[in-house]
Amino acid sequence: MPYGKTRRGVDKRVVRTKKAIRTALFEITETKDISSVTVSELARKAGVNRRTFYTHYASITEIADEIEGELVDAIRGIALNFHDNNFRECVYNVFIKMNDIVSDDFDYYFRHLKMDMQGAFIERIGEIINELAGKIAKSVSNISREKARYAATFVVGGFITSFFEWKSNNDVPLEEAAKIISVAADAGVREIVTAIG
Questions:
Q1: Mind listing the pLDDT tens digit for each residue in 112-141?
Q2: How far apart are CA 93 and CA 127, in angstroms?
Q3: Is the pTM of this model over 0.90?
Q4: Is 196 helix (H, G, I), strand (E, B) or coil?
Q5: CB of 106 closer than 8 Å to CB of 187
Q6: What gap in Å lies between CA 191 and CA 21, rounded to an integer?
Q7: DSSP letters along 107-155, please?
Q8: Which of 28, 128, 137, 162 is the most exposed place for a label (fewest CB within 10 A)?
């Protein structure tokens, strides 16, 4: 079940506690590597006891996995909605959603992705690229899956890079940045499909 959700809806206490734990992790990792953070240190910083921590997470790594999963799920929206007639709107909405997810703790997300030593995030993004390539290949009868993979890599890689570039600079409003990226992704896929089809 997603973060803070129960069978009856959102449990506000769970959301508060998990937010406190995650915020504490963000703050601690500003000065030290996540691999050297202890549960005791994290629990103390979050204002919870170790037992409460273990009620919500099995390890510190699980928190990082949960955070990474939220980013991957947002990006997966591009692949899931490719078949829709309005791919541009889909990319726009994913851009806005990504901003909602990382807005409070962008520095943590940015550091986490740069440190992705095990390549887990990249591997998960690779799965999304494969999923999107399959959809592109199905929608364009004369394009191979191999060629479609290049189009998918362009869209997903360009999206991620552009998002983090915009977030680092914040030099144009959110909606304008989302529009630019969505138009570029949509036009890019159309042009690639036409040129290599």
A1: 665 554 567 777 788 888 888 888 777 766
A2: 21
A3: no
A4: helix
A5: no
A6: 45
A7: HHHHHHHHH-TT-HHHHHHHHHHHHHHHHHHHHSTTS-HHHHHHHHHHH
A8: 162
Structure tokens at 105: 């703790």
Name the helix (H) or strand (E) containing 87. helix 87-102
Which amino acid does the sequence have at 179?
K
Q: How many CB atoms neighbour CB 39 within 10 A?
A: 14
- Euclidean distance between CA atoms 130 and 65, whole angstroms: 21
Position of tokens 């138009």? 183
How far apart are alpha carbons 184 and 120 in whole angstroms? Answer: 27
How far is residue 142's CA from residue 144's CA, in Å, rounded to a whole number?
7
Residue among 78, 83, 116 nearest 95 (CA) = 78
Q: Please report, as a single letter, which amino acid is at residue 143.
A: I
How confident is the model over 142-156, as pLDDT tens digits? 778 888 888 888 888
Give me 116's structure tokens.
Answer: 């992705």
Tokens of 119: 């390549």
User: In one letter, which amino acid is 150?
Assistant: Y
Report how far residue 80's alpha carbon sits from residue 74's, in angstroms, rounded to the nearest whole number.
10
Residue showing tokens 């740069």: 114
* In contact, 52 and 17? CB cutoff 8 Å: yes
For 122, the token pair is 């990249």
